[in-house]
Amino acid sequence: MNSDSPNVVPAAVDEASGSLYEVHKKIYPKNVSGTFTTWRWILVWVTQALFYGLCWLPWSGRQAVLFDVVQRKFYLFGLVFWPQDVFFLAVLLIISAYALFLFTALAGRLWCGYACPQTVYTEIFLWIEQKIEGDRNARIKLDAAPWDSTKATKRALKYGLWILLSVWTGFTFVGYFTPIKDLAQEALTLSFGPWEWTWIVLYSGMTYGFAGHLREQVCKYMCPYARFQGVMFDPDTLVITYDEERGEPRGPRKKETDYKAAGLGHCVDCDLCVAVCPTGIDIRKGLQYECIGCAACIDVCDQVMDKMGYPRGLVRYSTENALAKHWSMKDILGHVIRPRVIVYMTILTVISAAWVWGLATKPELRVDVIRDRMTLAREVEGGLIENVFRLQFMNVSEVPQKYSVTVAGLDKIELMGDPVVELASASNKNVTYQVRVPPESAAKGSHTIYFDIKAVSDEKISVHEKAIFLMP
Question: pTM for this structure?
Fold first, then answer.
């Protein structure tokens, strides 16, 4: 990082200690407007509207999205997931990973620049800071000023709003695990449970610390994505680039100056691309792992080019090959579909299709048959041989159901117990059954039997479960 950058305040380096660690320099990003900034704010509004609003959305008399850890049921609109459905979560994480790989191969760190929670909340916290303390120069001046009533008031207001937003964020996060309306009632008397207190405080503290104070340090030093993103780039990956051939030699000049006669390129060396960068890098030094792909430098450079009467795009989205071979945007897009991208897209499509198919065909009834280990087999009245089974019924639908239970597989087999089981919506129930057969029905040893469970109202909702019957 350039210590002479206008976007950082340099700190003295302890040369005597010979430390290998870079001394932290506080970054003051300058406010910027433009196409990419607008898109970033659209993503801020969309993601936060979903996060803060989705937990309040009702659905069939309950919360639309709720990960009820206590009841071990996850609700996602009309779907109900049980611990046995953890497979769907695992596949969803795989899909997310491959989507990240695909987007990175196509256009670099799009996730980091536009949708990553760290970027989104830093953007919000920085907006609050700018509204209270002013733009970059005013914030630098305020930091350097001695403490007085004005500075104390602004800092108290800023930190107060940061804390309020952080606490609301932590409260909302916990509201996805405890019903948000119940949590709101508990908030009136601060009667949260231990784990609710823990996570509200922890998530609020992380939001405040990461977005308010650590900011770019999270992206540069804590996030592993910044470190391994390079292996997913290739010369045809769209990244933010500086056109050195067009921009150099850089230098200040007046608008009316003939830059060609002066032996200059298009870069006026205003350093605004550095001043707006949230990680404080100079994009003119080439692609760096600290770049989060937010494109703020593109917006501000285009504004400078407009003022100078030069073509836009001195800093732009391009590729290594495009810069070297002077490709047009049509040529760049023509090289987007390449073997790596095809592999990622194929895998992503197959896994996504399988995941959607799995959700669409997810059964509304599940039954686990468990043998009573205390009694493998016994003789009861009438000389009959009896095995005991425990059936765990899970109604994973949102409708109360009645199920009929039958057993088959051996001659003259009988089911002892209630043949009809009633379950409320999204509930489970354990029922114990005794299965009996005459001793002449089968030879000594193990035999396969089947439990058939059907919904009384809809026979399409059925389960055919295998079990083992032991003959002594």
Answer: 0.82
The answer on pLDDT for 227 being more than 60 is yes
Checking if the pLDDT of 128 tops 80, the result is: yes
SS3 386: strand
Q: Output the CA torsion sign for 192, 198, 174, 398.
A: negative
pLDDT band for 16, please (50, 70, 90 cuts): very low
Q: How does pLDDT run across 357-407, given as a tens digit for each residue?
A: 998 888 888 899 998 888 788 999 889 999 999 999 998 888 899 999 999
What does the domain layout of the chain look like in residue ranges?
35-81+116-231, 365-471
Domain 365-471 fold is Immunoglobulin-like (2.60.40)
Task: Determine the 3-state secondary structure of 445 from DSSP.
Answer: strand
Q: Does 455 have pLDDT greater than 80?
A: yes
d(CA 357, CA 307): 54
Measured in whole angstroms, how far is the alpha carbon of residue 51 from the centre of its chain?
11
* 149-174 vs 194-207: helix crossing angle, rounded to 10: 130
Q: What is the C-alpha end-to-end distance of the chain, expressed in Å? A: 79
Q: Answer for the pair 133, 179: CB distance below 8 angstroms, yes or no.
A: no
Separation CA 247–CA 196 (nearest Å): 55
In whole angstroms, what is the distance from residue 97 CA to residue 56 CA? 28
Q: CA dihedral in degrees (81, 87, 89, 91; nearest 10)?
A: -140
On the question of pLDDT at 7 being above 90, the answer is no
β-strands 445-455, 73-76: how paired?
unpaired
| Closest to 389 (Cα-Cα) out of 409, 424, 416 | 416
What is the token pair recorded at 443? 């030879």
How far apart, in whole angstroms, are the C-alpha atoms of residue 395 and residue 80? Answer: 9
The token pair at 97 is 């990973």
DSSP character for 282? -
Q: Mean pLDDT for the chain?
A: 90
